[in-house]
Amino acid sequence: MPTSVFSQLDKSLHEHLSDLMRLAAKADDRTAIGLARAELPRMVSALKALLDEHQPDENGRCPTCRTRRFSRRLPSPCRAYLAAHLCLTITRDEQRAASGDGSARRHLRSAG
Ligand SMILES: [Zn+2]
Q1: How many Å apart are CA 70 and CA 76, to the nearest integer?
Q2: According to the lineage, what is the superkingdom (predicted)?
Q3: How far is the centre of ligand 1, averaged over its atoms, from the C-alpha of 55 (Å)?
């Protein structure tokens, strides 16, 4: 069935992302450096490919998410674009306040 193929794809992608998060947080420094060198360019490429699909036009509208039905809404970047932007540009303090979890920050401090 197509759905099971897609759900399997989705599952393996999320497992890969979970593995990366776990390794980034818990692996020793040498492994983490290797992971960053190997995976960061791939992550950036993936993100760029996604952002290319959701690049706001000169009016701030997303050509991918735009539909006729919503064309009268005020122009603004789509949720996909905003989510990527927030994830990448929000400061760690804001992140911690939002999640109520300072473990990532503590780990970064202890690592260096
Ligand atoms: Zn979009």
Answers
A1: 11
A2: Bacteria
A3: 7
User: Which stretch of 13-27, 36-50, 95-109 has the lowest confidence by average pLDDT?
Assistant: 95-109
pLDDT at residue 98 in the model: 62
Q: Using the mean position of ligand 1's atoms as its centre, give its distance from the Cα of residue 97 in Å.
A: 27
Find the 74 Cα to ligand 1 centroid distance in Å. Answer: 14
Give the Å distance between the CA of 105 and the centre of ligand 1: 31
Q: What is the DSSP string of 32-61?
A: HHHHHHHHHHHHHHHHHHHHHHT---TTS-
Long-range pairs for 87-92: beta carbons < 8 A, 24 or more residues apart = none
Average pLDDT over residues 25-52: 95
Q: Is the Cβ–Cβ distance between 35 and 20 less than 8 Å?
A: yes
The pLDDT value recorded for residue 110 is 46
Whole-number percent of the chain with pLDDT over 90:
46
Distance (angstroms) between ligand 1 centre and the Cα of 22 equals 29
